[in-house]
Every structure is written in C-alpha cells, then in structure tokens.
Amino acid sequence: MQIYNYDKNTLEYLSEEVAELDPIGGKPLIPANATVIEPLAKKDGFAICFDEKKQIWEYKKDLRGKEFWSKETGLKVVVDTLDFDTKNYTPTPPKENQIMQNGKWVDDIKTLKKEMISQIHQKKDELNFSNYEFENHTYRMGADVQADLLATITIFGAVGKLPAGYTIKDIKTNEYVSFDLPKLVKLSAEVATRKAEAIFKTQKLEDAINKCTTKAQLDKIELKLV
C-alpha cells in the first residue's frame, strides 16, 4: 500500500513510499504525518497540504521567499508562511517618502514638508552657533559668547570704553585680538544681524514649503540661509 508523507508543521506533501507491514497482523503501518489518501496534482504557485481534520488534500498559496511591502507602513516583508494574505501588501516597493493612496505609491508631501522644515531649522541653529569671521579673524560665536558680548557692551557702554587690554581669541591662529568698545559693538551687531536674517529667511522658507502641494514644487525650493 502506498502512503503519502507530509510535513508535521506546514502539512505540505513531502513524499510517497510503500507502507511497512505489521509483523504480527500483516496490516500496513501508517506512521504519524502520513496518509493513504493520494495527494492532488502539482499546481504552480501552490503547496499541496493535508487537512488532518477534514482528511483531504488542499492547495495553499505558496509565496515563500517572495518580497512584499506593507501598504500601511511601506516596510518590506519576506514571506515565510503558506497562504500569505496579500490584501494589505503589494509586490511593488515604494520610493523614499511615499505612501499608498488609491492602490499606488505617491509622494508623502506632509512628511517631506516636515523633513525640509526640520533641515532649515537645523541650518539656522548651526549658523547662529557657528564661528564668525570679522576683520580677517575668526571668533567662536556660540550663544554663550553672544550673551557675553551683549553683557560687556551693556556694562562698559555707560563709561564709553572697555577695560585696558580687552581681547578676544582668534580660534584659527590662537592670537588674542585687541578690541575697543566701537569695534566690539560692531562685531556684536554683525552677529546679531546674521542671527536675525537667519530667523527671517527660515520663516520665509517655511512659509514657501507649507504652500507647496506637490513634490515638484518642493524640489524647486533651495534650503539656503546665506
């Protein structure tokens, strides 16, 4: 008698063989995960599986090893089970920053806008806290230094001059550069102007980004503050 073996986990057909006979009664021995019921014919794209409850063979869609992308998250999955439900998946991968709409991938304008706005704010912060070149010297101009400049000008502005020997270090040459009050006021004013311009340009760019409705429009915007 022929018996047909199937996988104990997936229940898919594995092989056939002749059943061994019971040495006592002479009846065919049917081991676990086997049946005498003949399996269905092979079918492309399907596995032949045995339903132990119904005692029948049936086809199960076999997409194992194939790649699909979630319509909700855009994340890739590699199928490793039988009868994989493709309802919420597509074999077409999305491009960067795309979402599924009406059965196809489209540019996620909302996310693109957020990313661009985040980029210009980062550029603004980097500009405001970066080094500053003034009269052929380069000075560190973080928020703490800017605050110190204003405090110094406020304190010594009343007397009209800085303490004798007031200097600021050039971070490139390590030279200590002498400053008088007018020169310090000029430096502070230039730095403050740069900061104000960066804030203004950031807002203008942000407004322009928010008005866009397509990726093509967003692509035309240059994220430059200087």
Explain what this protein looks like in three dimensions.
The chain has about 230 residues and is α+β, with helices and mostly antiparallel strands. The protein has three domains: about 1-60, no CATH class; about 65-105, no CATH class; about 110-220. The protein has four helices and 14 strands. The protein has helices at about 110-130, 145-155, 180-210, 215-220, and strands spanning about 1-5, 15-20, 35, 45-50, 55-60, 65-70, 75-80, 90, 100, 105, 130-135, 135-140, 165-170, 175-180. Strands 2-1-3 form a three-stranded antiparallel beta sheet, with no helix packed on it. Strands 7-6-8 form a three-stranded antiparallel beta sheet, with no helix packed on it. A two-stranded antiparallel sheet has the order 4-5. Strand 11 and strand 12 (about 135-140) form a beta hairpin. Helix 1 packs antiparallel against helix 3 and helix 2 (about 145-155) crosses helix 3 (about 180-210). The protein is rod-shaped. The N and C termini lie far apart (about 85 Å). The model has no long low-confidence stretch (mean pLDDT about 95). It holds the Pfam family DUF4376. This is DUF4376 domain-containing protein. InterPro entries: DUF4376.
